Amino acid sequence: MSLYDYLYYILLPVLSVAMVLLFVRFLLGPSIADRVIALDLLITTGIGIISIYSIITNQPTFLDIAMILALIAFLGTVAFSYYLEKRNKNE
Fold it and tell me: Transmembrane ranges (predicted)?
């Protein structure tokens, strides 16, 4: 089994199932924190899919896109935690 077979037949289906389950968690999350965590994991899984696509197509440009997505996801999570901290202090 080559690396490309492993990527096609094992990793991409696992990441696809994870995306579906995370999207369901994002829609049904009981609290806003659960939804933010699910969204962060969705972006992280998307970064994994972009990275696999970059390896398969031999296009390192896609890794730049994945890095920008990672930075945006990190900043979004930090902003949300800051919002939660401020909300708890006001109550």
Answer: 6-24, 36-56, 62-84
DSSP 7-64: IIIIIHHHHHHHHHHHHHHHHH-SSHHHHHHHHHHHHHHHHHHHHHHHHHHT-THHHH
What ranges do the domains of the chain cover? 3-90
What is the average pLDDT across 18-45?
93
What's the pTM? 0.87
Which region, left, alpha or beta, applies to residue 59 given φ > 0 means left and ψ of -120 to 50 means alpha?
A: beta
Distance between CA atoms of 77 and 71, rounded to whole angstroms? 10
